[in-house]
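Table S7 (text form). Paired inputs.
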Amino acid sequence: MFRARQRLGKYRIEKRISSGGFAVVYRAMDTIEGIRVALKIPHAENINENVLSDFRHEVRLAVRLEHPHILQLKNASFIDGHFVIAFPLGERTLNERLSSRMSVTTALDYAEQMLEAVAFAHKHRIIHCDIKPENLILFSGNRLKLTDFGIAKVAQKTVRGSGTGTVGYMAPEQAMGKPSLRSDVFSLGLIMYRMLSGIWPEWPFDWPPPNYHRLRGRVHPDMIAVIRRAIEPVPRKRFRDAEQMLKAFRPAKVKTLNSIARKRRKAC
């Protein structure tokens, strides 16, 4: 563990943000650029030649993903014997934001941004494998960025020894070690259901999930159809990728917002 004000190359540690089985994340000041960053530092016992080889491969994939809603790596290198991954520092995670009430408009805005990010990755045939609220970082102006491309995959392989993903967020086939683009679609659908209903569906994902009445009262039936198709337990019944899901989402979003506007006019 690093202490506040401790130096790590050009970075000055300010505080610990989070900690997990694979790494610790710190807020730090880049004393050269004069900006705050997030530093992800894997535990020393998790780093070996095989892991480093995986990291190099995944980092090179991640660097290709230049998109407004994908968090870019600033740096990945050894500093004073520690493997350090630097990212732009956001305000909080979507998981933290979910602790307070969220309007339908905001939820749909976040949903569209994360769908655009994953659709871009899928266009490049890259599967994220660990889409969850903790990996969606919020910036000022309600901007959302998806992080941990590849890094999450390497972390899970290292800590668990087999399989990738986070229990509770992943598709059934992914839990069996067979992830695909459709597995990311499943995770996206779960997050959308959570944002719009206030409840996180749990296995066996029977339809309708808990709090369905709240979802039905907030969005257009077409949006419900998008979410239901996304979280189908059988992969072939889902959208084939996030690009296809995004195409179905956009008109459903317009219908939902129009419906909300009509209700407001009637209320007036």
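Next pair, protein 2 of 2.
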Amino acid sequence: MGLQITTLSENTAGLGGIMAEWGLSILVESEEINILFDTGQSLSASHNADLMGINLSQVDKIVLSHGHFDHTGGLKTVLLRIGKEIEIIAHPDIWAAKYSRRQGQEARYIGIPFHRQTLESLGAKFSLSREPVRLSDNIMTTGEIPMTTDYETIEPHLQVKEGQRFKPDKLLDDQALIITTGAGLVVILGCAHHGVINTLYHAQKLTGVEAIYGVFGGCHLINATEERIWLTIAALKELGVNKLGFGHCTGLAASAIMAREFGERFLFNIAGTSISL
């Protein structure tokens, strides 16, 4: 199966004219279907697609990894580029009132920056499910990801507002994309708030495939302890992953350690990166 993975939006950029922006958007093109996984924070995904000669009207479905603004803020401009009715697959909790509440700081809204009706008027057809969704014979979403490791946790400043009260966000909407290839699984992460290793274990369980060929996206180690980083690296080595393309919320420190530990198997997955598998 031919597979092209193109990062349209990420925190950093390497090619002239490519826009960098805190967030993530990855285009997955296969012989079966073209999927836009997340849309970045604002204009970057659309801008970079135009610059790279990518026609977003050829996208068949959009998948949202979760409801944070840096993965959904590009929805409006993306929908305008797509210019047709399109299914958006996500978890129901993407519409929760998501906030960041750090000690000593004002609560800051970090959820989807649009009203649902606005996006629907531009062609969005939301298909919300807590369960895995099969997009083609070889591609599916994870649905809700169980937390099974003892070192992967959700940051406490991530909260949801219900009425006038705040409570921890369990981030049940956190999900990934699983692609089954002849060489093993390819997993596309948004932020992996439930943990990259939990996500990979879940992908194995869902598909019955043990081999993991590649993992791309963000794995939210930006504020992780050194212990968690090394436990994650140990687990990735044990899983035998062949290609790691991390960026966004992975953090520079964790990415630098992984680059050293995995050598040629690791790449900094910046905006403009396009990989053929």
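The two ends are 8 Å apart (CA to CA).
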